[in-house]
Write a structure and sequence with these properties.
This protein has about 325 residues and is an alpha/beta fold. The protein contains twelve helices and ten strands. Strands 7-6-8-9-5-10 form a six-stranded parallel beta sheet, with helices on both faces. The chain has a two-stranded antiparallel ribbon with strand order 1-2. Strands 3-4 form a two-stranded antiparallel sheet. Strand 3 and strand 4 form a beta hairpin. It starts with a helix and ends in a 20-residue tail after the last helix. The relative contact order is 0.12.
Length: about 325
Amino acid sequence: MVNILGPRDEFLHILERELEAGIHVRGNEITLTGPPAAVELAIDVITELVTVLRTGQGLTADAVERTCSMLAGREDTRPADVLTHNILSARGKTIRPKTLNQKRYVDAIDKHTVVFGIGPAGTGKTYLAVAKAVQALQNKQVNRIILTRPAVEAGEHLGFLPGTLSDKIDPYLRPLYDALHDMLDPDSIPRLLTAGTIEVAPLAYMRGRTLNDAFIILDEAQNTSMEQMKMFLTRLGFGSKMVVTGDITQVDLPGGTRSGLRVVRGILDKVDDIAFCNLTNHDVVRHKLVGRIVAAYDRFEADHADPLRPEQGLAAPSHRSGR
């Protein structure tokens, strides 16, 4: 009971805020009152929380809130199946999906050769993809991990950067390094990079290559042109997987350049063994305020959308470059 209610009744307060049923706790007994539908939902939520606890996994305020949200949405998948789906255990923590769409994204990576993860900032697109890549490497499903992204600046021009090639591209690839450091022993990363087991490179260096037995991730794919997207996808070799991630609302390409990520769905949607996974502001796993910021920008852009014809093959309304 203490684990369900949380420290200083923190989880109980969340349940009271999220559920319409009245919740009364005395000893080890919980009494629910209210309309039948509200009581049924509260029973389902508490049952799921007990199921999560029985797996040996502790509850958090975030997990309680997401359980309420998933069950209120009447989804087929049980929250306990999502919140206990472990991908990787590393450096004292377990990496797992936190929302239903994230679990669908992870499952799609298992089932398909090429997966597109499209969604706003903070939805775990890149982080979960890197986790699946590390898992595949550890399970010897692939021989190497290749992480790449286009070297496009986000609205600022940094000029000519000093140092070697590695020094010059490091600022663009830093988010990928950060994810790796969360999942691997930091001392092992330089050794893996030197051996070529993990390769982090700008997209421009992919042309002409055939990538066999590799887990390949293209990050920030909204900043690829149509030609670059085609070039990248045709690098796929035998025994490899590809994950392409990006946010079509944050395109940093110069004006007039069409984003390859915006049009690729219309081109490849009917091709077998390719999956498109959409994440939304409800899947944001950063600070709660990030989800509200994303939702607010979506509303603003919907209210101030240009009355222009959307690009062919675009799965969502076209947005201007920038924020």
